[in-house]
Amino acid sequence: MKTLVSFFSAQSRKTADLATALAFVLGADRYEFKPDPPYTPEDLDYNNPDARVNREAKAQALIPIQGRIENFEAYDRVMLGFPIWWGAIPLAVKSFCKGYNWTGKRVCVFVSGWDDVSRFAEILQPYMEGAEILDVKLFKGPNTPEFRRWAEALKT
After folding, report:
1. What pLDDT band is residue 86 in, cutting at 50, 70 and 90?
2. Which domains occur in the chain, in start order?
3. How far apart are CA 91 and CA 57, in angstroms?
4. Measuring CA to CA, which residue among 120, 34, 136 is closest to residue 79?
5. Residue 41 in contact with residue 13, Cβ under 8 Å?
6. Model-level pTM?
């Protein structure tokens, strides 16, 4: 089984840390996707109503993503990671997902943050048509016992 750890991470890089640890444990390829153009610190200032992320959230339209995974069809399993923004899935994640054929892919979602993720599989499904979303897990970091147990269990 060929596995890809794909992820979106912002300023804190917590999701990047989770993705790096997970790719290491699984011996998987790692791919960070970013909006085009990438976010600047000013873009991410959610306290500013004119900040890019606030304008995007209000518009709820898909946004351009940099680059492409050329051999996406070669992966059987995709680990998808992202931070929670305002209790929701970032538009960059939905945009990334919409850009690929997910038919037959087995997907595990890992999220960094402090919120409820119980509906995330249902919310993501229309952006990942044909995928089987197996799991959605919330983690506070890669050095927690919960994350280590989850990552180890995925090796089988």
Report:
1. confident
2. 3-154 (3.40.50.360)
3. 7
4. 136
5. no
6. 0.94
